[in-house]
């Protein structure tokens, strides 16, 4: 298992997907930098999400709120008082650990366990720190990054890097009502950074201190929350399928009442079988009217909704599907990572869906020193690039090496211009005026499929349509 994860991490670094943050200075724990292919993959995932949940729908509105918010937002939301994880310290090294994680590692079920119960369990079981030393008492540790706004560092200037994007939507609920006049049910959607001072970041980009979330706050009449909950429950599964993730690796976990967050009346976690175990990928929560009510009370603003039809005023309830973008990226990479054998050689590659692969098509001339081949290949490349964007030109090394390189980064289709193409070009040019067709209509290229390794001849004129049909 561990080797498998190491292989994915190594591939990500080697091929320019993901690098350790601030690496030339020895790194910064819990931070990761996305390289050229990583950012392309991430952007494709974001676009797929945004299309599904915002632009394809009539009931969803996008927002992009500031990361820094008035500290009162976080007081009202409950984060200043309660956004914490149980921390325990190595008495000798003073290294800090998540108490619940140490207990889980020792085989203890921590569901519903209070802080005191964790303390007792650690002592009773004689659990030591990973360095073998005694542990101190378990205490709560607030995970928000605190900072000061402006030149004066006093209590009034305190702000926090947002630990979730959600609150940026709740505080803009009234602005959207007043500007867009939506009818309930409707949702707000946002993609953006969130920051958590995780006690123990780990498992690559699974648990980091800076990450992206894609969140929806969907507002409904209090009587209709169950319908919306079920709708998003199935939408989560369809989105995961759209990403090309195997559905049998995604599991629902109904959160027990005693483990629900303070704002939630019902939560389902969607877990994925990561190489390091079954862990939370997404959450779906029924947040009731907790947030709008808290913000209305704390700000003194009326955040209610007036229903024109029934002439009634009420505080909407909220369903929140929350998607971690980095965990999505990791699930996509874990699911796509594959090893097989081609021509007696080991092949390590990514079976990424054509919908999100950083490079959709790679175009090559069979030989790079034949100007006729290169000329046609360049033309095919630029036509495809105009249409799809995610197209690369690759003339390095021999064809076998190029295929291997493209397989490694998950490129689903490789197009090669060869001598047969040139024959077609010549014939088409000769017959062009007589037949009234232009050169390029009859000439063909090979298209090679990543997963099967099979090749097929396709007319250049049909290439874009063919590829489009495969996305
Ligand atoms: P966990 O229990 O794993 O710490 P959580 O229940 O605190 O997660 P939520 O508060 O529900 O997570 O956050 C919503 C989503 O944000 C999660 O489902 C996950 O995809 C993502 N997420 C949360 N914390 C992190 C993190 N430290 N690194 C990367 N993604 C995260």
List keywords for this structure.
seven-stranded mixed β-sheet, five-stranded mixed β-sheet, 28% strand, binds adenosine-5'-triphosphate, 471 residues, alpha+beta
Walk me through the structure:
- The chain is of the alpha+beta class.
- Helix content is about 35%, strand content about 30%.
- The chain contains 15 helices and 24 strands.
- The chain has helices spanning about 1-15, 35-55, 70-75, 80, 100-105, 115-125, 165-170, 175-180, 225-240, 290-300, 325-335, 370-390, 400-410, 420-435, 460-470, and strands at about 20, 30-35, 60, 70, 85-90, 95-100, 140, 145-150, 160, 185-195, 210-220, 250-255, 265-275, 275-290, 305, 310-315, 315-325, 335-340, 345-350, 360-365, 390-395, 415, 445-450, 455-460.
- The strands form 7 sheets. A 7-stranded mixed sheet has the order 3-10-11-17-14-13-12.
- Strand 5 (about 85-90) and strand 6 form a beta hairpin.
- Helix 2 crosses helix 11.
- The two termini are about 30 Å apart.
- The relative contact order is 0.10.
- Residues about 435-440 have low confidence and may be disordered.
The Cα radius of gyration reads 27 Å
Note poorly predicted spans: 433-441
Q: How is the main sheet built?
A: 7 strands, mixed
Give the number of helices. Answer: 15
Number of strands: 24
Strand order in the largest sheet: 3-10-11-17-14-13-12
What is the overall pLDDT average? Answer: 94
Shape: globular
Distance between the termini: 31 Å
């Amino acid at each position: 298992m561990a080797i498998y994860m190491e292989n994915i991490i190594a591939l990500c670094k080697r091929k320019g997907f993901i690098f350790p943050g601030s690496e030339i200075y020895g790194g910064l724990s819990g931070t990761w930098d996305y390289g050229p292919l990583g950012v392309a993959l991430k952007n494709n995932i974001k676009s797929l999400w945004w299309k599904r949940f915002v632009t394809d729908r009539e009931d969803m509105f996008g927002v992009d709120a500031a990361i820094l918010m008035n500290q009162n937002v976080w007081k009202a939301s409950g984060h200043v008082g309660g956004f914490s994880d149980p921390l325990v310290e190595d008495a000798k090294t003073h290294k800090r650990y998540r108490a619940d994680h140490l207990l889980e590692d020792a085989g203890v079920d921590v569901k519903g366990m209070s802080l005191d119960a964790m303390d007792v369990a650690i002592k009773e079981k004689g659990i030591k720190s990973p360095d073998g030393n005694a542990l101190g008492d378990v205490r709560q540790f607030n995970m928000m990054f605190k900072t000061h706004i402006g030149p004066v560092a006093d209590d009034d200037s305190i702000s926090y890097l947002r630990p979730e994007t959600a609150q940026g939507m709740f505080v803009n609920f009234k602005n959207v009502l007043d500007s867009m006049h939506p009818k309930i049910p409707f949702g707000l959607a946002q993609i953006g950074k969130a920051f958590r001072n995780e006690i123990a970041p780990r498992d690559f980009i699974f648990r980091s201190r800076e990450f992206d979330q894609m969140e929806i706050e969907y507002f409904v009449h209090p009587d209709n929350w169950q319908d919306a909950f079920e709708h998003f429950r199935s939408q989560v599964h369809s989105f995961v399928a759209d990403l090309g993730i195997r559905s049998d690796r995604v599991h629902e976990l109904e959160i027990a009442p005693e483990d629900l967050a303070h704002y939630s009346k019902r939560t389902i976690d969607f877990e994925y079988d990561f190489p390091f175990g079954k862990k939370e990928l997404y959450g779906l929560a029924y947040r009731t009217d907790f947030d709008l009510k808290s913000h209305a009370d704390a700000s003194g603003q009326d955040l209610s909704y007036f229903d024109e039809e029934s002439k009634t005023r009420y505080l909407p309830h909220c369903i929140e599907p929350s998607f971690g973008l980095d965990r999505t990226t990791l699930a996509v990479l874990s699911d796509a990572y594959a090893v097989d054998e081609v021509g007696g050689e080991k092949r390590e590659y990514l079976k990424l869906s054509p919908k999100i692969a950083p490079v959709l098509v790679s175009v090559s001339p069979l030989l790079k020193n034949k100007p006729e081949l290169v000329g046609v290949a360049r033309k095919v490349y630029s036509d495809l690039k105009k249409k799809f964007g995610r197209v690369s030109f690759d003339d390095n090394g021999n064809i076998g090496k190029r295929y291997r390189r493209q397989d490694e980064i998950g490129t689903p289709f490789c197009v090669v211009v060869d001598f047969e193409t040139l024959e077609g070009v010549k014939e088409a040019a000769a017959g062009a005026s007589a037949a009234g067709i232009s050169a390029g209509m009859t000439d063909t290229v090979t298209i090679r499929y990543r997963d099967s390794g099979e090749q097929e001849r396709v007319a250049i004129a049909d290439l874009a349509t063919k590829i489009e049909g495969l996305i």
